[in-house]
């Protein structure tokens, strides 16, 4: 037997590290060795184990140690005791039955077909690096006020808030969000229509689950937000790319007949990533047509709060009464991404109709954070923070624009008066993903515009450049490095040039 399971290590021998790697007690070692031998087929089903007396003598342990080990193995079904002694049970794994080992199943067979639909174009670089799009100014977050809100939630909410919450979210937060959206974004809603989710991503997944069946058609902006495409893939939808121009999503009129949609993803206030604002004419057209074909419009208002100057662009949801709009929001930009709190505002009638399904699908966690956020909004801290960030991002965008203007033609720069990123179109001679790889090696993390495209083409060769988390004074030096890399790729001299 010792040839099959090997000699046991003496647990009384301490190692050089002072016993940190001390062997397990003999009984535990014996149980593990025998289990392994049975699972791998070295002790095949049906084979008779030596008597406890014999094995104890062979292994140099007490008989009691072997008896207890055999009893343990019998209790969990590895062995059975019969008239002849202790025998290995017939287990279902082929190796335990002594059959030859087979290769693990090929990946195609092991995974759902949709797994292959996720294109690996995103770099999972550190999202706090300069020029990363989508990361807000983390070092400007009012940590002290947030800590106070969390402490207050603990004072008032414990111990109840440690239990499961209402699946649709804390009523206090739903009410606070509704009040804020009515005032700041012109959304027509009350708290009963708000469902709290784990960020906008879960809100998108929820929209897919509630409003589509596998095979339904979904339209997405192209280039557009990858999270929307991921949600549609998860729902086994047929995703149709829709072009984007300076007025936002531009639907070819015949698409309503040839590929009638069930869901339409839009980012009207600030198209992601081109920065276009969806014109009122197109908003009204989308609402009217969606109504006619029975489709739902997802309005992703991910950074609509950050209009730098002038009046904010009001939501599409609030444009007309009972618009077929699912308004999705997130605190990833307005607070911080790791908070993982987002929401969807459902039309009033739909909210009542889907309440039971929502209750079954969600669990209602992060209660203390939700209560703290409700207080943070209600006390005015949130509004003050937004005001400060709006001014900060305005200054940072201006610095980025000036830096880009020094090296690139203004016509290449896309993006409006909003948000935390600008988009730079590149000539075909500079492949955007090559440029981002080189930039990353220098510690900068702009994203390749082509990575946002379902159908990459000349207009989707470029960079999405974030300024949210990059101080204004670091933008010009960073863009100088980018321009230098772009120049090298084009084979042009480093200075005194404008790419494109
Ligand atoms: C267009 C868009 N929508 C939504 C989000 C926020 O997603 P989440 O709330 O899941 O972090 C982002 C974040 O990058 C985004 O770019």
TrEMBL record:
**Could you tell me one molecular function GO term of this UniProt entry?**
DNA binding
Q: Which InterPro entries match?
A: Aminotransferase_I/II_large, HTH_trans_reg/aminotransferase, PyrdxlP-dep_Trfase, PyrdxlP-dep_Trfase_major, Tscrpt_reg_HTH_GntR, WH-like_DNA-bd_sf, WH_DNA-bd_sf
Q: What SUPFAM superfamilies does the annotation carry?
A: PLP-dependent transferases (SSF53383), Winged helix' DNA-binding domain (SSF46785)
Tell me which residues make up the HTH gntR-type domain: 24-91
Please indicate if the UniProt record lists Transmembrane helix as a keyword: no
Keywords from the UniProt entry: DNA-binding, Pyridoxal phosphate, Transcription, Transcription regulation
- The domain of life is Bacteria
Family label: In the C-terminal section; belongs to the class-I pyridoxal-phosphate-dependent aminotransferase family.
Q: What is this protein called?
A: DNA-binding protein
């Amino acid at each position: 037997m010792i040839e099959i399971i090997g000699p046991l290590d003496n647990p009384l021998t301490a190692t050089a590290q002072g016993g940190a790697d001390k062997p397990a007690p003999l009984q535990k070692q014996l149980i593990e060795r025998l289990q392994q031998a049975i699972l791998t087929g070295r002790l095949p089903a049906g084979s008779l184990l030596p008597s406890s007396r014999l094995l104890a003598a062979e292994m140099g342990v007490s008989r009691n140690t072997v008896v207890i080990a055999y009893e343990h193995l019998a209790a969990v079904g590895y062995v059975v005791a019969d008239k002849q002694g202790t025998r290995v049970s017939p287990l279902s794994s082929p190796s335990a039955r002594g059959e030859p080992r087979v290769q693990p199943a090929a990946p195609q067979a092991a995974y759902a077909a949709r797994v292959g639909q996720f294109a690996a174009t995103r770099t999972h670089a550190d999202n706090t690096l300069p020029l990363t799009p989508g990361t807000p100014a983390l070092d400007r977050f009012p940590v002290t006020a947030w800590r106070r809100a969390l402490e207050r939630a603990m004072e008032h909410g414990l111990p109840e808030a440690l239990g499961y919450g209402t699946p649709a979210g804390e009523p206090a937060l739903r009410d606070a969000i509704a009040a804020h959206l009515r005032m700041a974004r012109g959304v027509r809603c009350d708290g009963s229509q708000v469902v709290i989710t784990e960020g906008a991503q879960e809100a998108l997944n929820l929209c897919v689950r509630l409003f589509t069946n596998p095979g339904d058609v979904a339209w997405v902006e192209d280039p557009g937000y990858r999270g929307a495409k991921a949600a549609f893939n998860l729902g086994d939808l047929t995703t149709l790319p829709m072009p984007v121009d300076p007025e936002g999503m531009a639907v070819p009129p015949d698409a309503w007949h040839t590929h009638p949609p069930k869901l339409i993803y839009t980012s009207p206030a600030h198209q992601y990533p081109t920065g276009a604002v969806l014109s009122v004419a197109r908003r009204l057209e989308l609402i009217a047509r969606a109504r006619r074909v029975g489709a739902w419009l997802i309005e992703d208002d991910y950074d609509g709060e950050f209009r730098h100057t002038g009046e904010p662009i009001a939501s599409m949801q609030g444009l007309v009464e009972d618009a077929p709009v699912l308004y999705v929001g997130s605190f990833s930009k307005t607070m911080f991404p790791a908070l993982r709190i987002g929401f969807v505002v459902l039309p009033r009638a739909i909210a009542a109709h889907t309440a039971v399904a929502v209750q079954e699908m969600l669990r209602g966690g992060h209660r203390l954070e939700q209560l703290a956020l409700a207080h943070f909004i209600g006390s005015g801290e949130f509004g003050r923070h937004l005001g400060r960030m709006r001014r900060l991002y305005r200054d940072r965008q201006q610095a980025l624009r000036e830096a880009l203007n020094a090296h690139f033609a203004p016509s290449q720069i896309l993006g409006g008066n909003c948000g935390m990123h600008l988009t730079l179109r590149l000539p075909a001679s500079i492949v955007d993903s090559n440029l981002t790889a080189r930039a990353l090696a220098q510690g900068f993390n702009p994203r390749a515009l082509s990575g946002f495209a379902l159908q990459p083409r000349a207009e989707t060769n470029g960079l999405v450049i974030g300024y949210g988390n990059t101080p204004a004074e670091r933008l010009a030096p960073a863009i100088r490095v980018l321009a230098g890399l772009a120049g090298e790729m084009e084979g042009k001299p480093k200075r005194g040039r404008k790419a494109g």
